[in-house]
Amino acid sequence: MLRIIAVAALMSLPAVAIAQTAPADGQSASEVKQAETGKPPARIRNVQLTANEKCPAPVGDEVLVCTTIVDPYRIPKALRNPPKKDAASQSWVNRAATLDEVGRRAGGLPDTCSPVGSGGQTGCTAQMLQQYAAEKAEKKREDSAIP
User: Fold this and answer.
1) Please, what is the Cα angle at 35 between 32 and 37, to 5 degrees?
2) Domain boundaries defined on the chain
3) Region Disordered: which residues (predicted)?
4) Backbone phi, then psi, for 82, in 5-degree steps?
5) Chain segment 15-52, per-residue pLDDT in tens
6) How far apart are CA 100 and CA 120, in angstroms?
7) Nearest-angstrom CA–CA distance, 20 and 12
8) Separation between Cα atoms, residue 69 and residue 48, nearest integer Å
């Protein structure tokens, strides 16, 4: 029994070898030729297509690789739209601080740099000093960044 199976397998080998040299569906003649000779193709071309384009035909002995671009943008989707800065997107701490600052300026309270009320001038001086310190720190950062 084992001999019959071995003889049948040996007799079917030439048929399998002949079937491998014929081009399969979607396989070009140049691909079959490359497989027979074992040499790499002269040219490999990559083509990126949009959704509506068709893959062009290969020219000569080249291998053509077509890919469809799903997402043509290089920026990740999560970073394309900047985050919202409206009141609903802010934390309660930021909302409360903004309301407090607006209320202080409107009421002319001390340290508000407001033209209304008697304590507004102290706030203007404090605001100028804070702005000066921020500009000085920025300049120091810029100077230290340059080698």
Assistant:
1) 110
2) 17-84, 106-147
3) 22-41
4) -65, 155
5) 545 555 555 555 566 566 666 777 777 788 899 888 78
6) 16
7) 13
8) 6
